[in-house]
Amino acid sequence: MLPSAMPRLFALLLVSLPCAVLAGGPGAFITSVRVEAMAEPESSQALFTVEPDTSYPLLKKGGPGRKWCKLRGATAEGWVLCDGAEETAVAAAPGAGVLAEADKTPELGVLSTAAPEASGCAATCAQARLFPEPPSVSEVDREVLALCPSRPDGSVSAEAIHQFFSKHYEDKALQQALAAAGRTVAGPEARQANLTWLTGLWTGTGPRNAFTYVFCGDDWTRGLIGGLHFLPRYAQLEAEGKVCFTGPARGDAALQGDNYLIQFRGVAPWSCGEKKLGGFSRSQGALSIAAIGAQAFANCCARDGAKTEGGVYAVPGLDGATWKIRCGTRNGTYGISSLYPTSESPTCAQPQASR
Question: What is the pTM of this model?
Fold first, then answer.
């Protein structure tokens, strides 16, 4: 039987999603959404991530109002909210006929093991680097660089994005952004909901996502390079000889105020793409950019399923700095499509009534 078919099969056999069952011995827990397993009920210490459509041994129910389930993960045991989970016997194992039918499920396509190699363009740079000496990079920004794909056709996974936000959930900028977006921040239930919301802003069901676009760059194998609005990533790729600085995008200076506005191109075999108008902030790190994105999304995007919308957001506390956000379904589901610093005048600075 195909491994990918098993979670879907058990999800159908159990009563509901999210679902947990508890009999005399351990039961099974399956959820339809990704959640964090905590050290104790209502704790803020996450021990491991509970993946959707995956069966976990259910050890017991407990906590306030018996709304929590204790699960066994691969490396630890932790608690998740499971209000409504039934305490009945585990469903019987599927019969041979059901298993045979499930075996007919086609396998999902996988990424080729051979990374694409660009050709037909320059393999060296003719102009001096934008950063002759690599700029200093914070530990958090190094974490984001480590998430960026090692091949030009890759994307940062939703799981990795969720884990990044989970690790830094208590960051002051993120907490302020969540509050400014009108979201409840106190309590474990709010934590789970906010991590799901933050992850959903940056990634969806599609093969591309805004996290990769903004922090790593994408569309390297196409004519026009997408995104790359994160200074440490540009500097990393430049130092590795994968991109070449080709000059300021406007005027004679690459640095305009706090923002770089430049042109650059890819280098074979990484990419033959071009960026005719690219920009990133000199002062904002990964977490502050993520926080700006959350606030800009809440203030500039109606979240009514429109294909394309957004605006120029005035960031509170940054001396009038503005960032442009576009929202839509580029990720496969509605969320952030792009986010970058700009010198344009703000068009949205107050919470949307529809939020």
Answer: 0.69
